[in-house]
């Protein structure tokens, strides 16, 4: 059995979504399996057209910081989040959505990118994924 | 045996690693995948990924900040 990385994506901040997707892609590229469990603010990023809508975790400055960082990222040729998500799915990465968050925040399945989501679940889904994982992160 | 060349010059983390993995997945056993890039960390990390997947790196060349890695699937 190949090794596995399981990431809890709790934050919806732009920079942390980048970290999560880069690590997920990195794990897949190194020949591991990968699962990402989106919950709370992280789940907001699975809304249609929501992937890159999060604020910066620091120095957001009402959007000015995000604009500056986004510009620098473009200049450094950093891949857009949409591409990272496409690559992640192409390489067989799994996306799990937290049902409790959907209930609390009143999010319906049709509001989410259902084509990315492999499963909907609760804590048991995460623990079951993580119990035989060699890397597990909470972002 | 076919040879597949991917050009990730100018691309940064994690694109070279990811594009290399995508090409390796599509290749058949015995094929050679050649990755052409400039991202310094990927030059070390692509061979690391190959090692963990049990694939053989046939050669690494570097010239003027550009590197070329040959991998056998």
From TrEMBL, chain A:
<protein>
    <submittedName>
        <fullName>NAD(FAD)-dependent dehydrogenase</fullName>
    </submittedName>
</protein>
<keyword id="KW-1133">Transmembrane helix</keyword>
<feature type="transmembrane region" description="Helical">
    <location>
        <begin position="20"/>
        <end position="43"/>
    </location>
</feature>
<dbReference type="InterPro" id="IPR032836">
    <property type="entry name" value="DsrE2-like"/>
</dbReference>
<keyword id="KW-0472">Membrane</keyword>
<keyword id="KW-0812">Transmembrane</keyword>
<dbReference type="InterPro" id="IPR027396">
    <property type="entry name" value="DsrEFH-like"/>
</dbReference>
<dbReference type="Pfam" id="PF13686">
    <property type="entry name" value="DrsE_2"/>
</dbReference>
TrEMBL record, chain B:
<dbReference type="Pfam" id="PF01206">
    <property type="entry name" value="TusA"/>
</dbReference>
<keyword id="KW-0808">Transferase</keyword>
<dbReference type="GO" id="GO:0016740">
    <property type="term" value="F:transferase activity"/>
</dbReference>
<dbReference type="InterPro" id="IPR036868">
    <property type="entry name" value="TusA-like_sf"/>
</dbReference>
<protein>
    <submittedName>
        <fullName>Sulfurtransferase TusA family protein</fullName>
    </submittedName>
</protein>
<feature type="domain" description="UPF0033">
    <location>
        <begin position="6"/>
        <end position="30"/>
    </location>
</feature>
<dbReference type="InterPro" id="IPR001455">
    <property type="entry name" value="TusA-like"/>
</dbReference>
């Amino acid at each position: 059995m190949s090794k596995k990385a399981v990431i809890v994506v709790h934050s919806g901040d732009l920079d942390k979504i980048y970290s999560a997707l880069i690590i997920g892609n990195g794990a897949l590229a190194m020949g591991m399996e990968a699962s990402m469990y989106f919950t709370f603010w992280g789940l907001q990023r699975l809304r249609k057209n929501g992937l890159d809508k999060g604020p910066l975790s620091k120095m957001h400055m009402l959007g000015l910081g995000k604009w500056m960082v986004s510009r620098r990222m473009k200049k450094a040729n950093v891949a857009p989040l949409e591409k990272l998500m496409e690559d992640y799915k192409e390489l067989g990465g799994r996306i799990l959505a937290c049902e409790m968050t959907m209930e609390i925040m009143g999010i319906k399945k049709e509001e989410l990118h259902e084509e990315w989501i492999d499963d909907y679940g609760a804590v048991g889904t995460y623990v079951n994924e993580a119990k035989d994982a060699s890397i597990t992160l909470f972002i | 045996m076919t040879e597949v060349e991917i050009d990730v010059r100018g691309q940064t983390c994690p694109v070279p690693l990811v594009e290399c993995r995508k090409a390796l997945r599509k290749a058949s056993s015995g094929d050679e995948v050649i990755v052409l890039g400039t991202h310094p960390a990927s030059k070390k990390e692509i061979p690391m990924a190959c090692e963990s997947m049990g694939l053989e790196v046939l050669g690494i060349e570097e010239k003027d900040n550009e590197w070329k890695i040959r991998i056998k699937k």
